[in-house]
C-alpha cells in the first residue's frame, strides 16, 4: 500500500492507523478475489473488528467515504456482475496453457487461413434506453413506445486474422423456414445461411451444417496443401465425432479455448460483438419510430442485423479484436495484461498472505490487540516494540476473521437455497482429443 493522504480523522480509540491500512489492503484483496466490497460491507467488517476490541459505537455516517478518499489506491466505481466460473477461469495459467498450444502446434498456419468462430444471440425486440427531449417535469417519465418482443435469435459469425468476415449463419427459433420471412430487397444478403432450431440455439446438426456449407466453401485456401485453423470454444457440438472427421478430411485444425476464457481470448468477444449489438439496438429504435410499435418479425430482424454488421464487421474492428486478445500477431503478453484477467489462486494467496501473530506462552494471554497495547505501556522501548509486533499480528488476524465471518454468513444463505448439489460429468479436453 502506498502512503495515506490523511488518516487522523479516521482514527478512533480502537481503530489505529495500522488497522486502517490493513483494511485498505483487504479491500484490494477482495477485489482481486472477485468479491469487491460495497460501502456497507466494508463498514460491517470494520465495525466487527472494533466490537472485538470492546467498542460498540457504530462508525460515522460518512466514514467509508472518507476512508476511500484517504487511500490513494482506492476509488468507488461501478461493480460489474460476472458469472463466477468466467471470473475464476480467466487466469495467467489458462492463458499460458492456450498460447503454448497456439505457438507450438499452430503458429505455422497462415493468418488468412486462421478463423475465429463464435455464436451470439440477440433478443429481437429490445432497444436501448437513451436521452430524449421532453418536459422539464422530472416526475413525468418520458416513455418510448414499442413492442418489447422476447423472441431469441442466434447468429454464428466467423472472422479471419486478416480482417475478413465470413457470411453469417442465422438461427431462428422455430420448426422450419417460411418464404414470407424473406423479401426481394434481401437478395444481396440472401446467401446468408438460415436455419431453425426449437430453442434458437445451435446443436450438433447445425454446427456440422455450418462447417460443411458455410466455413469450408468460404475459406478454401489458394494453395490446396495449406492447412486451416479454427479457434473456437469447447462446446460439445464442436467436438463431436463427425465434426472431428470432417475437419481431418479437409486439413482443418481446431484450437479450443480454455473453459470460461472466451470473453478474454476470443477476438469476436472483444469489440466486434459489442459494436454489432449496439448498432442493432439503434436500428431497432429507428424502426420503431417509423412503424409505431410494429412487432420485430424475422424480416425486420434481418434488416436491422444487416445494418449492424456493416458497423461491426469493418476490417479495422476485426483486426483490433485479434490484436487485443494477442491471437494475431501472436502475443501472449496482450492476453496476460487483459483488464479482466485474474491472478492465479496460488499467487494471490501468497501475495495477500496475512502475517501469523507471534505465539504467547502465558496463562493470561491477551485476546485482543487492544489488550496487548495496554500491556506495553510503561515498559522499556525494546519491549514495547515486541508488543507492537504482537498487536499488529492480532489486528491482521482480527481483520481476517471479520472478513471470513461475513463470507461464511453469505455462503450459509446460499446453502439454505441449495441443499443438495448435482453430480457433474467431467468435461474432457477437446484440444487433446483433436490433436491425438
TrEMBL record:
Residues 361-377 have a biased composition (Basic and acidic residues). Residues 355-387, 417-436 are annotated as: Disordered. Residues 378-387 have a biased composition (Basic residues). Coiled coil: none annotated. GO terms for cellular component: nucleus. GO terms for molecular function: DNA binding. The keyword DNA-binding applies. Keywords: DNA-binding. InterPro entries: CenT-Element_Derived, DDE_SF_endonuclease_dom, HTH_CenpB_DNA-bd_dom. Residues 9-77 form the HTH CENPB-type domain. Pfam families: DDE_1 (PF03184). This is HTH CENPB-type domain-containing protein. It comes from Fusarium oxysporum f. sp. narcissi.
Amino acid at each position: 500500500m502506498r502512503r495515506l493522504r490523511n488518516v487522523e480523522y479516521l482514527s478512533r480509540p480502537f481503530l489505529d492507523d495500522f488497522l486502517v491500512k490493513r483494511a485498505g489492503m483487504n479491500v484490494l484483496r477482495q477485489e482481486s478475489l472477485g468479491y469487491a466490497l460495497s460501502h456497507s460491507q466494508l463498514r460491517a467488517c470494520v465495525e466487527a473488528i472494533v466490537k472485538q476490541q470492546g467498542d460498540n459505537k457504530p462508525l460515522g455516517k460518512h466514514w467509508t467515504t472518507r476512508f476511500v478518499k484517504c487511500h490513494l489506491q482506492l476509488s468507488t466505481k461501478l461493480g460489474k456482475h460476472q458469472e463466477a466460473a468466467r471470473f475464476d477461469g480467466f487466469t495467467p495459467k489458462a492463458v499460458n496453457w492456450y498460447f503454448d498450444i497456439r505457438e507450438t502446434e499452430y503458429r505455422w498456419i497462415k493468418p488468412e487461413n486462421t478463423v475465429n468462430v463464435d455464436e451470439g444471440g440477440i433478443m429481437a425486440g429490445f432497444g436501448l434506453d437513451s436521452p430524449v427531449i421532453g418536459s422539464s417535469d422530472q416526475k413525468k417519465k418520458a416513455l418510448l413506445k414499442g413492442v418489447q418482443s422476447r423472441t431469441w435469435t442466434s447468429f454464428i459469425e466467423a472472422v479471419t486474422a486478416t480482417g475478413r468476415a465470413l457470411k453469417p449463419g442465422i438461427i431462428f427459433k422455430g420448426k422450419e423456414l417460411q418464404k414470407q420471412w424473406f423479401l426481394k430487397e434481401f437478395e444481396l444478403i440472401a446467401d446468408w445461411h438460415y436455419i431453425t432450431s426449437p430453442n434458437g440455439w445451435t446443436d450438433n446438426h447445425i454446427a456440422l451444417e455450418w462447417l460443411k456449407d458455410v466455413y469450408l466453401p468460404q475459406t478454401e485456401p489458394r494453395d490446396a496443401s495449406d492447412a486451416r485453423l479454427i479457434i473456437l470454444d469447447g462446446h460439445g457440438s464442436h467436438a463431436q465425432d463427425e465434426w472431428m472427421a470432417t475437419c481431418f478430411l479437409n486439413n482443418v485444425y481446431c484450437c479450443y479455448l480454455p473453459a470460461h476464457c472466451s470473453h478474454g481470448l476470443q477476438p469476436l468477444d472483444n469489440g466486434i460483438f459489442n459494436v454489432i449489438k449496439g448498432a442493432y439496438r439503434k436500428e431497432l429504435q429507428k424502426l420503431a419510430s417509423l412503424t409505431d410499435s410494429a412487432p420485430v418479425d424475422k424480416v425486420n430482424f434481418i434488416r436491422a442485423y444487416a445494418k449492424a454488421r456493416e458497423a461491426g464487421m469493418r476490417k479495422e474492428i476485426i483486426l483490433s479484436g485479434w490484436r487485443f486478445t494477442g491471437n494475431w500477431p501472436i502475443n501472449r503478453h496482450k492476453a496476460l495484461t487483459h483488464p479482466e484477467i485474474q491472478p492465479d489462486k496460488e499467487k494471490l494467496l501468497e501475495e495477500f498472505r496475512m502475517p501469523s501473530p507471534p505465539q504467547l506462552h502465558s496463562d493470561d494471554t491477551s485476546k485482543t490487540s487492544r489488550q496487548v497495547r495496554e500491556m506495553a505501556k510503561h515498559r522499556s522501548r525494546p519491549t514495547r516494540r515486541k508488543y507492537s509486533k504482537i498487536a499488529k499480528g492480532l489486528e491482521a488476524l482480527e481483520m481476517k476473521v471479520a472478513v471470513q465471518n461475513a463470507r461464511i454468513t453469505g455462503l450459509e444463505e446460499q446453502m439454505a437455497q441449495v441443499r443438495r448439489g448435482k453430480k457433474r460429468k467431467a468435461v474432457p479436453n477437446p484440444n487433446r482429443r483433436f490433436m491425438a
